[in-house]
Amino acid sequence: MSNQANARPFVIPQFTPKDYGSFFLAGALCCTISHGGMTPIDVVKTRIQIDPRYKPLGFVSGTRYLIANEGPSALLTGFGPTAVGYLAQGGAKFAGYEYWKKSFVTIAGDQETAVKYRTAIYLGAASVAEFFADILLTPLEATRIRLVSERGYATGLVSGFTRLASEGGVSQMYAGFLPILCKQIPYAIGQFTVNEFCHELAFRNMSEETKKSMSDVSKFGLSLGSGIIAGFAAAILSHPADTLLSQINKGHGPTGSMIYRLTALAKEAGVKGLFAGLGPRMIMTAGLVSSQFLMYDGIKHALGAPPAVEIHKE
């Protein structure tokens, strides 16, 4: 009998608009809470990337230097655009991943095919969802970087966003769109794909009885561990573009097309420069990703949203 005849049809949940609303709200809340809470780490990381005075400093010494020179309040610079930007981006990313994953599984047509091509499904769903989410994020991320990198640029989100819009217009607000895609798409791939495979690896080494009898503490530990590993992967994959994004938004680099500017800045920075600040960012991203998945699952459950489509290999 052929493989096609043996293929088991998928029972794919039919998510309703209310379900997608729950996915969006859960993603929005988990991302804005986690990114907002990580603002002090992000401020120090950005300074190390773009301020020559911070280049030789590590995370702890950089934090001390910042507080000594600008006061403790400087650690919360850019909190407004961070919270609002990731509210929009997080909702679109998580709801989008659920939507595109389900869509690609539907295209696969049966369980055997979906499981066989699950890596492509994870990669495709994460990439497409992130692309649309970044349309919402880019102007607010540009505002945040200006606030963090240029002391006195503006007093907060509204004044910073207004100044950037009036001085640079749409072209300046979206100047970082290409590099932000180069940063966020690898980030999303690391976040979702590695998390999926960590869960798959763990479940593959469990009996059905163990899976069904997992305690809440065990489930929490699995989600936390998977999220931390996924966070490390997301940080490493996206860090060179994150460094270039900070440079672009501060106005560094030659004039010309975005690809030319990115290439020139990359050559100037070198491998060591592109990975400047990676240590603090790995810590930050591990915390971000793991906390996001834990909060996302918890909020989804509280809202009564259905579970995601699973295509793990048994």
Automatic annotation (TrEMBL):
Subcellular locations according to the entry: Mitochondrion inner membrane
KW Membrane (keyword) present: yes
One GO BP: mitochondrial phosphate ion transmembrane transport
Annotated GO CC locations: mitochondrial inner membrane
UniProt cross-references to InterPro entries, sorted A to Z: MCP, MCP_dom_sf, MCP_transmembrane, SLC25A3/Pic2/Mir1-like
Membrane topology (UniProt): Multi-pass membrane protein
MF terms (GO), sorted A to Z: phosphate transmembrane transporter activity
Domain of life: Eukaryota
Alphabetically ordered keywords of this record: Membrane, Mitochondrion, Mitochondrion inner membrane, Repeat, Transmembrane, Transmembrane helix, Transport
Pfam family, any one: Mito_carr
Solcar repeats, residue ranges: 18-103, 117-201, 218-302
Membrane as UniProt keyword: yes
Record-stated family: Belongs to the mitochondrial carrier (TC 2.A.29) family.
PANTHER family: MIR1-PHOSPHATE TRANSPORTER OF THE MITOCHONDRIAL CARRIER (MCF) FAMILY, SOLUTE CARRIER FAMILY 25 (MITOCHONDRIAL CARRIER PHOSPHATE CARRIER), MEMBER 3, LIKE-RELATED-RELATED
Protein name: Mitochondrial carrier domain-containing protein
Species of provenance: Lentinula detonsa
